């Protein structure tokens, strides 16, 4: 009963505090982004910078091949900025792709480095082998699969490659999948930020506020258990995280998510982030001293979200950050036929890890309660 009363008291007090309104503000910001800023169905156009070095007749045939892909892909001259220099290029607009033909190879390489298109390529004609030669220029963060694709895609004649692709049979093992729109695809990373990352910061801020007001010191002369005080804080934050996240998810995803799995993962991950916030706050006297530690961890936890939005950047070490699995877990709850077993496994992992961190924070607070 003491825990229940302490939990209700924390809810009441937090609803009148500054950090509660900060959580509401973040909820509104994310909701506005999803409903009014991010388009429901985003269409992306990739850019390719090419430089051609080949006889005039072959170059004409190559350009005709580009135009054959799209009847409206007639070239038009544009000007690209390269530092203080203006570089002329021929632009061919295809469906979902823009191809810039740049005469000078060095300009193409410099523009590829500055403008960061999908790819830059120098295409020349090998008179000895009577075939095209391709040199690709990429940014460096591309995965091995994409690099390997560039190596083999021109290893055979295009017509033969097309014939082989058409021979490949694709069969779906499951049916009933519903395509997600752009907003629904952005949800997992955004609700992770709203819950776990903000939750850790808010929890630490609440504890430092109690330290400043002397509430922590008061526990040293009362019969109340430290763990009840800490757990009531965590339960309060879990409740607020649950409510604010559902307010975000329901208008954007409707009835598509598996809400029971979503709630379980939300609560366990919120408990984990609360425990991390408690542990951090046990080492410092105020928020100013803890600022570097909190934001270092927040930046670390944000890296999997960056990898989520940029699939081509997916280094192996990102998978060692727990938030990677949290984002994937939220993604599974949004899919009609998502892997519920994976969600439960991730939830159990966050619950156990959060429990261990909570016990460590409790031990640390009992030793330094009056500091």
Largest sheet: 6 strands, mixed
- Category from helices, strands and their pairing: alpha/beta
Question: What is the molecular shape?
Answer: elongated
What is Rg? 27 Å
Number of helices: 13
Taking all residues together, what is the mean pLDDT? 84
Strand order in space, largest sheet: 2-3-4-1-5-6
Distance between the termini: 28 Å
Percent of residues in helices: 55-70%
**H/E element string?**
HHEHEEEHEEHHHHHHHHH
The percent range for strand residues is 5-15%
Q: Which stretches of 5+ consecutive residues score pLDDT under 50?
A: none
Secondary structure tally: strands: 6
Structure commentary:
The protein is α/β, with parallel strands linked by helices. 61% of the residues lie in helices and 12% in strands. The chain is built from 13 helices and 6 strands. A 6-stranded mixed β-sheet has the order 2-3-4-1-5-6, with helices on both faces. Helix 7 packs parallel to helix 10. It is elongated. The chain starts with a helix and ends with a helix. The mean pLDDT is 84.
Can you tag this structure with a few keywords?
alpha/beta, 13 helices, single chain, six-stranded mixed sheet, 371 residues
Write the layout of secondary structure elements.
Layout lengths: L1 H13 L3 H20 L8 E8 L2 H13 L7 E7 L2 E10 L2 E6 L2 H11 L3 E8 L4 E7 L6 H9 L5 H10 L14 H32 L1 H4 L7 H28 L5 H23 L5 H23 L12 H13 L5 H28 L4
Parallel strand pairs: 1-4, 1-5
Antiparallel strand pairs: 2-3, 3-4, 5-6
């Amino acid at each position: 009963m003491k825990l229940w009363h302490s939990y209700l008291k924390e809810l009441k007090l937090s609803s009148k505090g500054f950090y509660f309104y900060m959580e509401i503000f973040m909820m509104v910001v994310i909701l506005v982004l999803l409903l009014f800023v991010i388009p429901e169905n985003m269409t992306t156009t990739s850019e390719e910078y090419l430089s051609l070095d080949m006889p005039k007749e072959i170059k004409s045939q190559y350009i005709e091949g580009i135009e054959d892909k799209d009847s409206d892909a007639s070239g038009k001259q544009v000007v690209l900025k390269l530092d203080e220099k203006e570089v002329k290029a021929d632009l061919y607009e295809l469906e979902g792709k823009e191809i810039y033909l740049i005469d000078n190879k060095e300009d193409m390489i410099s523009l590829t480095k500055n403008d960061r298109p999908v790819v830059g390529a120098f295409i020349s004609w090998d008179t000895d082998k009577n075939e095209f030669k391709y040199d690709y220029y990429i940014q460096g963060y591309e995965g091995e699969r994409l690099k390997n694709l560039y190596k083999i895609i021109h290893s055979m004649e295009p017509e033969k490659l097309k014939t082989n692709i058409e021979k490949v049979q694709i069969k779906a093992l499951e049916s009933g999948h519903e395509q997600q729109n752009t907003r629904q695809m952005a949800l997992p990373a955004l609700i992770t930020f709203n819950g776990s990352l903000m939750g850790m910061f808010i929890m630490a801020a609440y504890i430092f506020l109690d330290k400043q007001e002397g509430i922590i010191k008061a526990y040293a002369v009362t019969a109340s258990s430290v763990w009840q005080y800490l757990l009531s804080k965590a339960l309060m934050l879990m409740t607020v995280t649950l409510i604010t996240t559902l307010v975000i998810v329901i208008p954007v995803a409707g009835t598509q998510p598996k809400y029971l799995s979503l709630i379980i993962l939300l609560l366990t991950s919120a408990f984990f982030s609360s425990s991390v916030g408690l542990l951090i706050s046990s080492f410092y006297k105020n928020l100013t001293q803890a600022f570097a530690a909190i934001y270092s961890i927040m930046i670390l936890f944000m890296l999997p979200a960056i990898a989520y939005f940029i699939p081509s950047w997916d280094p192996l070490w990102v998978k060692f950050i727990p938030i990677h699995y949290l984002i994937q877990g939220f993604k599974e709850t949004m899919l009609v036929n998502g892997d519920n077993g994976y969600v439960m496994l991730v939830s159990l992992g966050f619950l156990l890890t959060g429990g261990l961190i909570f016990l460590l924070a409790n031990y640390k607070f009992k030793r330094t309660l009056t500091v």
